[in-house]
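Example for tutorial group B:
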């Protein structure tokens, strides 16, 4: 059954692991088209993994907007996280993210996962169920980076790359399984280039992330102290956007 990822890291390997869990939003599933959208992004319903909160498929015009940047902000109980989305870098991902944001899909949700490994330092959000197992009831293809630097000290042909501090990227459950979950990198992290980068976190947002990260992982979480629910519970109150730039 399709799944959405939970970012998981082993200190040595910083691999991303996945947990399979059936989703439960049958009413949404019944209303979802059975086939993909007709445009180039091909947003494809996942009836075996329906949306955990009602949302339609994103618009998929024949010419996906592929230039300019869009300023969005996640207003959280820990402070604002403004981000600049890059349509040129990942047009279908930005199209989907903006659709979910403006549909209120991310409103009143928690960021369910913080990792504090030396080589994997991210906050993961985007699942209204708060479990790390939910999504929007559709998937779409990767738009992977091709120019990331090799992790310092690794061989020149290493597959492990630098996802730099400030990176905004999609979580996934394997190739072409993007949904709604995303991660925010607060320290340089060592990963394979298997995760679509679609924007950057602005300095004010990084300060908010640093505050959350400084609180560490909730000691009651089984994955503590390296991987689990943030000790400083982080709620996305509302997400909003501003006009495109460029």
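The residue assignment follows.
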């Amino acid at each position: 059954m399709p799944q959405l990822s939970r970012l998981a890291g082993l200190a040595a390997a910083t691999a991303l692991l996945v947990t399979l869990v059936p989703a439960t939003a049958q009413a949404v599933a019944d209303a979802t088209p059975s086939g993909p959208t007709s445009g180039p992004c091909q947003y494809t319903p996942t009836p075996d993994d329906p949306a955990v909160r009602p949302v339609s498929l994103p618009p998929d015009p024949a010419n996906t907007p592929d230039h300019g940047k869009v300023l969005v902000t996640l207003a959280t109980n820990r402070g604002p996280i403004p981000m600049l989305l890059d349509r040129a870098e990942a047009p279908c991902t930005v199209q989907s993210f903006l659709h979910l944001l403006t549909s209120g899909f991310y409103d009143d949700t928690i960021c369910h996962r913080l990792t504090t490994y030396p080589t994997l330092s991210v906050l993961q959000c985007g699942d209204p169920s708060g479990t790390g197992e939910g999504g929007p009831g559709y998937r779409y293809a990767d738009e992977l980076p091709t120019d990331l630097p090799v992790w310092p000290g690794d061989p020149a042909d290493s597959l492990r790359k630098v996802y730099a501090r400030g990176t905004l990227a999609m979580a996934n459950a394997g190739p072409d399984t993007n949904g709604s979950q995303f991660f925010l990198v607060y320290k340089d992290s060592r990963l394979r280039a298997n995760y679509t980068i679609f924007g950057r976190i602005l300095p004010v947002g990084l300060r908010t992330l640093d505050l959350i990260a400084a609180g560490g992982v909730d000691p009651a979480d089984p994955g503590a102290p390296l991987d689990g629910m943030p000790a400083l519970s982080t709620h996305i109150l509302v997400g909003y956007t501003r006009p495109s730039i460029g």
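The chain has three helices and 14 strands. Compare this with the pattern of hydrophobic and polar residues in the output above.
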